[in-house]
Design goal:
Layout (H helix, E strand, L loop, with lengths): L9 H6 L16 H5 L7 E5 L5 H6 L7 E6 L2 H14 L4 E5 L5 H4 L5 E7 L17 H10 E11 L2 H13 L3 E6 L15 H8 L5 E6 L1
Parallel strand pairs: 1-2, 1-4, 2-3, 4-5
Antiparallel strand pairs: 5-7, 6-7
Length: 215
């Protein structure tokens, strides 16, 4: 997949949205609720790989009492998501422009309640499964960062990645629910928010796979 061309005037545009993102997320480790002005008992949801922000800007308003944090590695893509949230003035949505490999540097143990993984890179090239965000080393990391009873909500268009992920979830002790290989024709579609990639794949006739993994 081609990388998005770097956006012009990125630093200036980011500076206009400073209330939406954190330049040093490590400083918030263990105190996200406090820093963002939320009660100490509120739930914290993390989306890993938020893309241009369609999903998070629609999901965060559905859970106004939860703190929603969206992470995106690509600076130009992250900028688009931040600007979208800035225009919408969503009070419980904040962003991190960072790499998912370093989540333990940004969050404390038991700090998260839910993690969204939407259309992550399937890494189908040979000898790359360890880079998948549902590989067991990532799953063990999620378990550490989530409170007991926390869930990973996973969606993909890729059959191989879905089958791989389901087995990884099981091996790491997650309980699976809301399992479907055709989300858009399932009972769970009524509450589903379609990402940009999701709509693109659906328009091509590709079934969307989804599962909720709870630890």
């Amino acid at each position: 997949m081609a990388r998005m061309r770097a956006k012009k005037h990125l630093p200036e545009r980011m500076a206009r949205c400073t209330e939406r993102w954190f330049e040093d997320p490590k400083a918030n480790k263990g105190k996200w609720r406090e820093v963002c002005g939320f009660p100490s008992d509120c739930e914290v949801f993390l989306e890993v790989g938020c893309g241009k922000g369609k999903f998070c800007t629609e999901m965060a308003p559905r859970f106004p009492n939860a703190l929603y944090i969206a992470l995106e590695r690509d600076p130009s893509v992250c900028l688009l998501a931040i600007e979208k949230a800035h225009r919408a003035e969503i009070p419980n949505l904040f962003f991190i422009q960072a790499d998912a490999n370093f989540l333990e540097e940004y969050f404390e143990e038991d700090e998260l309640n839910r993690i969204y993984l939407n259309f992550s890179d399937p890494w189908t090239r040979q000898n790359k499964p360890k880079r998948r965000l549902t590989y067991r080393t990532f799953l063990e990391q999620y378990k550490k960062l989530m409170k007991k009873g926390g869930s990973v909500l996973f969606k993909t268009d890729n059959d191989e990645l879905f089958d791989f992920s389901v087995e990884e979830f099981k091996e790491c002790g997650f309980e699976l629910s809301e399992y479907t290989r055709d989300l858009h024709n399932s009972e769970w579609d009524k509450d589903n928010v379609r990402t940009e990639f999701e709509q693109k794949f659906a328009d091509q006739g590709i079934n969307i796979k989804r599962v909720v993994a709870t630890y």
